[in-house]
Amino acid sequence: MAICSFCGNDIIKGTGKIFVKKDGKILHFCSTKCEKNLLKLKRKPIVVKWTKLFKK
Question: Is the pTM of this model over 0.90?
Answer without folding.
Answer: no
